Fold this protein.
Amino acid sequence: MLKKDNPVTYICTSTEDAIFIRDKNLVEDLVGKMTFTEMLLFHLLKQPPTEMQTVIVDAVLITIMEHGLTPSAIAARETYLGAPESLQGAVAAGLLGVGSRFAGTAGDCAVLLEEIVGVPESEKSGVATAIVQRHRKTKTPVPGFGHPIHKKGDPRTPRLVEIAETVGARGDYIAAMHLLSEAMDEEFGKHIVINVSAAIGAVLCEAGIPATITRGITLVSRCAGLVGHLLEEMEEPSATYLWHLAEEKIPYAGEAGK
Amino acid sequence: MLKKDNPVTYICTSTEDAIFIRDKNLVEDLVGKMTFTEMLLFHLLKQPPTEMQTVIVDAVLITIMEHGLTPSAIAARETYLGAPESLQGAVAAGLLGVGSRFAGTAGDCAVLLEEIVGVPESEKSGVATAIVQRHRKTKTPVPGFGHPIHKKGDPRTPRLVEIAETVGARGDYIAAMHLLSEAMDEEFGKHIVINVSAAIGAVLCEAGIPATITRGITLVSRCAGLVGHLLEEMEEPSATYLWHLAEEKIPYAGEAGK
Amino acid sequence: MLKKDNPVTYICTSTEDAIFIRDKNLVEDLVGKMTFTEMLLFHLLKQPPTEMQTVIVDAVLITIMEHGLTPSAIAARETYLGAPESLQGAVAAGLLGVGSRFAGTAGDCAVLLEEIVGVPESEKSGVATAIVQRHRKTKTPVPGFGHPIHKKGDPRTPRLVEIAETVGARGDYIAAMHLLSEAMDEEFGKHIVINVSAAIGAVLCEAGIPATITRGITLVSRCAGLVGHLLEEMEEPSATYLWHLAEEKIPYAGEAGK
Amino acid sequence: MLKKDNPVTYICTSTEDAIFIRDKNLVEDLVGKMTFTEMLLFHLLKQPPTEMQTVIVDAVLITIMEHGLTPSAIAARETYLGAPESLQGAVAAGLLGVGSRFAGTAGDCAVLLEEIVGVPESEKSGVATAIVQRHRKTKTPVPGFGHPIHKKGDPRTPRLVEIAETVGARGDYIAAMHLLSEAMDEEFGKHIVINVSAAIGAVLCEAGIPATITRGITLVSRCAGLVGHLLEEMEEPSATYLWHLAEEKIPYAGEAGK
């Protein structure tokens, strides 16, 4: 760790005729030689990714790009209505809702999986049970479990696991996720759905993505999703309609005029 | 065009056991079957992209992801310093600077290239000259030309053109870019560098990306770049140093204490 | 104007025992001696405001603070739903919609009023007519005129004018606004409502606020309004309801499942 | 508490000729009859504020509006450089840094003061000591204490206390702040400066502002400060200079070119 008062960067430098990203020549080594996802991983991991890493991250990025008219998509479209001069403002407004409530659970679950993976095999099951119990005690939901719509099972979860296994992930975090699921079912006396968030946490750990930057992967994916929503908003606007709907369906209930 | 008071969306729908993006089943048709860039293009173009489109967009996304400690990266890092609880806030702050001044020129140049492509072959050269002249008259820079550092040529420009041509782009917009460049050189009496922005405008047109959403491609790419900067900021912080540097080097010049 | 490569600031400096804002000692001269609005004006105008300036700006700040469940308030509330850890993110999302479409018209109208005020008395009426005609020719709405709800007159307009006149504004810009209104009515052959935006543009000009920063006044006012909406969202949440309403009323109309 | 599936708003409603904010007619009862701060408090507290409340909140808003080239001001200026078309984007970027690290301490300290105020007189001192001890045990700084520059005392702290006392605050939270300060000094064996954040937490509690919305007061004040910075950036730009300074002083330390 370099001293704070003498900081450096390892990301990028330029000369009159070349640009370097980390130790690579942008034009000669990177452009036209990689996919976006490989470049993103090279940027985050500081070395070219393995195929396993790329396949997993591509699968995650595709899985969470879109979920229709989410709160985040609504914020982006309403912002575009007021400020059509600034596409970046509408995208930024949408990303600001990618916070702890919905998007943060993958990273939170990853931290729990690391806790299980970090102990010897014989203790893993006990740690999983302890995790569930301490969440119940404080009435905190265990991140990554349960789903309001996909009540019989989140279809994305087994697919992400299957992809990670096919491409050669070691499987430690996926196994930890299943242990945590078993502990959930035992503690609650019924099956609790493994949400896609748990699977995302597990497979990104398998791919070696630091838990501190998990939310960054989500932000990149949602950024793409929001651009798609804004293009639809230009072609098929719904923001004005939704605004008027809000005014009608969330009525004023104060004292004025009474 | 549907009526405004009865809006619909074509993006996404869910059932209890499936999620659909446009007409595809997310889990069965998309996850594990595409790269991120193919999914982004499917989202924007409403149909699976051709290889030509994917290769061009990957090349553009990689080209503009990083340029070191840009104003946008500085804004993201300084925001993270004050609000480490909100990675999304730091990314959003960085994206808010992806505006008309630096990032907008690719889209602005694309509009000029469309103007040239839209006329018969025999008139193209005249239109290019007219474009340069009308910009000179109002002392407006022609978007996509000149570079403060790469004075002998922007190395990214020929690389993007080469990739687009190799992968089978028709070349109409690239040809228009070269016509505009010739008109620039003739009008100014010297060679003016073709900035990577012009090349991005040209190759995204070749790939069929609507000019209205060009900036969206930039936002996705920069979003990834900013996540990389924030990971570096966590590991090698420079925001406090830069803050103190600003206080020292941009001194107070008011009346107090005089 | 100082050279770009040697910038300074006139805003603030500190010693071990004092903080200075411009030429004043924060603790001794400002805190407890002014209202917020006087401080805002001191910050923008670099000298303590007159009573006329303060009264006008207070009136404007109050007039535009709230208009219920606007697109901007919806964006803030939906963002808070996803990221309750970041109040600043929800406020920022709301402010990002304070753009050219609704909020920008006051500043745009101010520019037109400056155009009228800038010519001799005898020419003012002709300039007002020319402004209306050139907007009609390009089918651009004249900023500050018309209102979808207050069809017989915007009640805020005469009130702002009355306040400005009572407190001693010279009245040049208010007169220009009335001339522009007369030109509108004559050109369109019927009375067009003078929107509060025109009045805001006029009275802020009377108060000597630079047109370049008019939108800044709006942002401060709306920032306060958004904080109020977020407090209501904590106490009486409506964001989840509106999200579900959006999913129900803006249905998926694609091919999936057909 | 109304049911979630039937939400209402108490903030605003309109008719063809009037606008109501809560139970008041905007034009007849509010515009021209209040200062901005009174209106802000009416919005948050749902009733017209007392003079005590207004004076305290004005003092707080003025105290924290400006502190020069802070990380937040730098983010706003760098964002404006890239996106001059969107003043709202630059202000939003600046507000996004008003987070837990610097701005959040006032609200965090307020929570501790409420803890002390909530117990009988005879137990208050013990609670204060317990608070300090539990923070030391987890090596967490006590919010609102210490200052890197004002080492002999933050000049803003006694001024805010003086104003609150002069205007008739009961003084319970101010007394709690002093108890906490005594506990700090005793535990650490030396005097620790009472930061302005502690004073802000205390006096806003005296004024009856809910701790959940304390940060909202900060956001309104900083919004005004940021508008002032952006006006200076238009007149005396420093963002480009700071960008080049960052590139020069935070050098690339990677492998390229070695």
About this structure: Chain D has one domain: 50-250.
